[in-house]
Structure prediction request, 100 residues.
Amino acid sequence: MWGGITRESIEQLKRQGSTEFKYKRFGILATPEQLPDTLEWKLEVRITRDIGHALLVKPFRAPYTFKTREEAAYRGIAYGQDIIDGKVPGCSVVELQSVG
Prediction:
């Protein structure tokens, strides 16, 4: 287990070439960006919820950096799961839950 995501799920995402993961009623899209000065990758995540007629999106950034894009992407998915589960202080998806 790596954060809230299993090693099997990570392998499945790698095979698909994806950094998007479905969790509970949400989508988690990891969108890491490389820092030009250090060449490390910062962790960015978009949590989505499809309510039928619209796709709601809320972005989040974490104060962490990683050596590789792959590590930032998969850690981003675990970070998104923690946000959805209410484990990250100051980060919430309440407004996405109350719709639809």
User: Anything to note?
Assistant: The chain has a mean pLDDT of 82. The chain has one domain: 7-97. Helices lie at 7-16, 69-84, 94-97. Residues 7-97 form a domain with the Double Stranded RNA Binding Domain fold (CATH 3.30.160.350).
